[in-house]
Please model this.
Amino acid sequence: MTQFTFDKLIEKYIAGNCDPAEERLIEEWSERQVVAMSFPLPAHEETNTNKRLKKRIDTSTVGVWRFPFRLSFYRLGIAACILGMIVCGVWLWTKKPASMEGIVLTDKKAEFGLSNTTNVEQEFKLKDGSTITLSPQSHLTYLEDFGVKNRIVFLKGEGYFQIKRDTTKPFYVYAGGLVTKVLGTKFTIKAYEDKKAEVVVTSGKVMVYENRPGKIAKPVVLTPNQKVDYLPTETVLKPIIVDVPIIVHPIEKTEDFDFRQADLPAVLKRLKLVYAIDILLKNKEMSHCRFTGNLNGLSLMDQLDLICKTVDATFQKYETVIWINGEGCQ
Model:
């Protein structure tokens, strides 16, 4: 699989359009972090490349129906060669190191900025319909062709992004040595100078990778209640669970969180559905435990604490999973 094809598969995954096999491929890749990837092709270049590919393929198809058998395969051979050349060209382009300064200087376009110099949060709306809430003393920069050829912004400080969905123009945020790529979702980025950069997802999926010239990017895919913390001295990006998980899929009625002699696996499954976090048992013997209690009005950590005290167990966060461990129940 080429770099360009894999990047398109990532976009397909973020958009939620992958089949089960493709989802397994991406998720296993993300967990192992074994696939190297550089700065992706800008949206306008992707569109132009797709148009060229479609034109070549359409031309080849016409040849199959209108010309003799030998000539048809000749045309198809030419189309395949052109396709290979274009894909190779895209792959070579992605190997170029990218940086905020490189984009600004290369494009040579007017630069615009949004600043919050107040002591309270301020909300701004970009011309593509996306909304950015900047924290105090935070600044957002973008070029004059934003929303026309691309959707690229540069953040210093902290911002909460609510991105309008556009599958033809991915949204890129450069901040604190990281690049965050989305199609349309909600997330927070903190990138203050001399401090750890952080990306936190509240809905949808985002792809995050390091933006350092000369270094191969190793991206991770984040889903709700996941984040990455980043320092330039770190070697890899690792997704972890946020400190205070939020409800992703609300329960329909309070009775859904009021359990009476419920099997522990069923209780944990309910929590997973609500918070979109995997909660697993380390000891299979614990699957025989039962839980009685009302979890309404409690945070996830307090809910887990109550459950563990009831079944004489403990819980621990490890990367994107919460493990529950105990001796089990008779």
The chain has a mean pLDDT of 76. The chain has seven helices and 18 strands.
